[in-house]
Specification:
Layout (H helix, E strand, L loop, with lengths): L2 E4 L22 H16 L5 H11 L7 E4 L3 H10 L1 H11 L2
Length: 98
């Protein structure tokens, strides 16, 4: 079994995502707007999905594929931060919301 882990890709998924707006806590409106803007920026600047298709083809053609198959822009940095510097990743994400 293999897992394909795409980062940001241009699909209609983001356009059709549902967000819960009911019972929103007003104190978080500023953060919510910033997160929505960052999400939209990620979708706007995303790659087309061909790299995901290519990794799936590679997995299908491999006898013993790797379990984890991340794919996308800035992948090396994100995987490094997740594995070796999770606090740094968290603080970077929080700074981007300020």
């Amino acid at each position: 079994m293999s897992l394909v882990e795409p980062i940001w890709f241009k699909t209609n998924l983001g356009n059709h995502a549902v967000a819960s707006k009911g019972n929103a806590i007003p104190d978080y409106n500023n953060y919510r707007r910033k997160v929505d803007a960052l999400t939209q920026k990620g979708l706007d600047e995303a790659q087309t999905p061909e790299p995901v298709v290519n990794i799936i083809k590679k997995i299908i053609g491999t006898k013993n594929p790797k379990f984890s198959n991340p794919v996308g822009k800035q992948l090396g940095m994100i995987v490094f931060l997740q594995n070796f510097a999770p606090k740094m990743l968290e603080s970077t994400m929080l700074k981007s919301l300020k």
